Amino acid sequence: MKKENYGVQGMHCKTCEVYIESQFKDIKGVTDIKTDSNKQTLSFSTREGTNTKEIIDEINRRIKDSGYKINKEVKEKNSSENIPLAFVIASLIMLFFWGLQKMGIGNNLFSGELSFTMVFILGVVASLSSCMAVVGALVLSFSSIIAQKENFKSSMIIFHVSRLIAFFILGGILGVLGSLILLTSDIQLVVSILLFIVMVVLALDMLDLFPISSITLPKTISQKIFNTKKVGYIFTPVLFGIATFFLPCGFTQSMQIQ
């Protein structure tokens, strides 16, 4: 057996690894397929006489539309290349909220009772603010798995509808509990600080400055979903849609606490 090593562009999480590995399941003469999203590498063993170039060309043809590419050269990630852009974006966001504060919007937002109009606006903003580090990773994980299935569109529709229903029902339950249980300002401050710390750690992870395990589907579960043709069953997208309620971004969690 001959050991082959390649670089893979576009891998970001464990689901990416499972997706790349799944493309080799019907390729004869290839064994011990292993991928590493952190190092952006692919390795496998081939029998003597196997045309590796044809295999890689075929796999690249399959994964091209999904944003992946296998190269002979292994390129290591540059952890610092995104820092300037991240700094600029963070500065613009801080400037935006500073402007809101100066206009008095920030002070009036959480003072007194919120009108239904303001609640609706906050709901729209919260629904659009689901961060890439938390629920975004789960959504990408799920969508990349079912992207190759025949019932992809119906599964995604069920997923998003179940997410809306889950936020409506579970959010209503939180509202009822909130009317019965009054959180002190000290408790709200502590929770906000904890959320801030979590968001900072996740941001450092996305910049590869402080790598941690991303919130994605476990690799064993992803493999089972990839290998089954019954992923279109209603239960699976509904389950993941409900799960997003418990993995919102810091802003959405602040709304839940409020």
TrEMBL record:
Keyword Membrane in annotation: yes
Single GO term (MF): metal ion binding
Pfam families: DsbD_2, HMA
Residues annotated as domain HMA: 2-67
The protein's name: Heavy metal transport/detoxification protein
CDD domains, A to Z: HMA
TM region(s), chain numbering: 82-100, 120-143, 164-183, 189-210, 231-253
Coiled-coil regions, chain positions: none
